[in-house]
Amino acid sequence: MKVLMVCLGNICRSPLAEGILKSKKPDWYVDSAGTSNYHIGERPDLRSIEIARKYNIDISNQRARQFSREDFAKFDLILAMDSSNYQNILKLARSEADKEKVKLILNYAQPGLNMAVPDPYYDGGFEKVYQLLNEALDNLV
Ligand code: 4NP
């Protein structure tokens, strides 16, 4: 199974989602990306690194990259953190098959509610983000 986590900056939410899923399924190919180009090449936000470390997950070696159209061919499942990420990913889809690969990650925790993983970049809340992602990813696996 090849899974891509996608948020806006690829420094807060999606790196954490990548780390959590890798810890649950070491044999799956898991990566993350951002819809924006704001932080390309950067390490995850220190607050994400710290919350992951609290749960014995090391995400410090990740580097941010931007989502691209080629990712539709490389991954089976593309998990968006919020509806803005979701819409921006769909804009790059070339086919219905591409679109069907894209899901809102929290629909694995609360099916059909289209809930967002709140963006913690300005206001914090990394523990809550961890708990939401962990619950959704337990259900996914
Ligand atoms: P992320 O958080 O999408 O979870 O990585 C953000 C990181 C950076 C910005 C916004 C959200 N930014 O505006 O730079």
From TrEMBL:
Pfam families: LMWPc. Keywords: Hydrolase, Protein phosphatase. Gene3D superfamilies: 3.40.50.2300. Residues 1-141 form the Phosphotyrosine protein phosphatase I domain. Coiled coil: none annotated. Belongs to the low molecular weight phosphotyrosine protein phosphatase family. This is protein-tyrosine-phosphatase. The lineage of its organism: Bacteria, Pseudomonadati, Bacteroidota, Saprospiria, Saprospirales.
